[in-house]
Amino acid sequence: NVGRPQDPVEAAWAIIMPRRTVVEIPPVAVASATPNPGVAGQTINFFGGASYHPNPARTIVKWEWDLDHNGTFETVGVTASRSFPAVGNYPVTLRVTDDGNPALTDTETITVVISLPPVAPTAEAGGPYNFCTNRTPWFLDGRGSVNPDEGRSEPGRPPDTIIEYSWDLDGNGIFGEVTGPTPNVTAFFAVRPDPYLIQLKVTDNTAASYPSSQLPNLSDTDTAQVFVRNGTDPACSCVTNLVARPKPGKADLTWTWRAGAFSYNVYRGTVSGGPYVKIGTATAPGLPGTGVFADMGPLTASVTYYYVVREVAINNDELCQSNQASATPPAR
């Protein structure tokens, strides 16, 4: 092209440079409802903590719920709840937002089914479970399972309730390896360091409670992950200085609040080593750098109570368990 005037179009193409395109990956919304199905007037609890982000450099920072299917996300938080007045199908939508700039979102809509009894129970396997070898024994917890028509029945028949908790611990589809709502699984998982997907099956007594339905006992299943970690794993850097101070009718708990911790769930039991029952959540340090929780009971004098705290992530997952502390309230 020497000595020839350059065509304007040719000149324009000559200065075009290739531009790298970056595609941002949005989060993934995952919503669940317990119980589902349910009965009219019953509180339905919604959970969005299983939502996740495929990009490890991004985090979900907001959960919003449209509970009445009007297009407005009126409830903010990982969890939400409401009841429905009549038999029918009710859509509920979760929207999650990440910390990108611009922020990216995703939604998932689930359908809550409100039915007449008999209704199958809803299994809740708990978890994910982080079992640390320096914190034993290890328990599963299926007490979040719900029977929608709990206590109801045909006239003169026994009340409907969950009569069996049956667990499949190795994912082979065979239930009954352990049973009960809070089984001790230390021996099973102590020799199985790999992550596992476990299942819980809960069964009610519909056949006895509603014989005219000609239905068998109804069941439901749920899954949860189990991680067994060496005590030296950073994920097992739990609270090690939980202290319980007894007072008449109550106990005061203190521990070091890890910098950056979102919250701590507080548990109490009457047997050393557990199982424990959740009694509350500390959402902020009560003192600078110190978690504080008052168990107001009322606690029984001369009975020993055992406590642990578990750090909670922003999505409500429990990370690991503290040392156990005990308190024996004196008589007044």
Give structural notes.
It is built from three helices and 20 strands. The N and C termini lie far apart (103 Å). It has 332 residues and is mostly beta strands. It has helices spanning 8-14, 186-189, 206-209, and strands spanning 32-34, 43-47, 60-66, 75-76, 79-83, 88-98, 105-114, 129-132, 162-168, 178-179, 196-204, 219-229, 243-247, 250-256, 263-269, 277-282, 290-295, 305-312, 318-321, 325-327. The chain folds into three domains: 32-114, Immunoglobulin-like (Sandwich); 129-229, Sandwich (Immunoglobulin-like), CATH 2.60.40; 238-327, Immunoglobulins (Immunoglobulin-like). The model has no long low-confidence stretch (mean pLDDT 92). Strand 1 (32-34) and strand 2 form a beta hairpin.
What key attributes describe this structure?
mainly beta; 20 strands; 3 helices; globular; five-stranded antiparallel β-sheet; 332 residues; Immunoglobulin-like; 37% strand; 5% helix; single chain
Beta-strand content: 35-45%
Q: Helical element count? A: 3
Structural class: mainly beta
The largest sheet has its strands arranged as 8-12-11-9-10
Q: What's the main sheet like?
A: 5 strands, mixed
Compute the separation of the termini in Å: 103 Å
Overall structural domain count: 3
Label the CATH architecture of the largest domain. Sandwich
Could you estimate the helical fraction of the residues in percent? Answer: under 10%
The CATH C-level class name of the largest domain: Mainly Beta
Which fold name fills CATH's third level, the topology of the largest domain? Immunoglobulin-like
Provide the low-confidence segments as ranges: none
State the shape: globular
Overall mean pLDDT stands at: 92
- Work out the number of β strands: 20
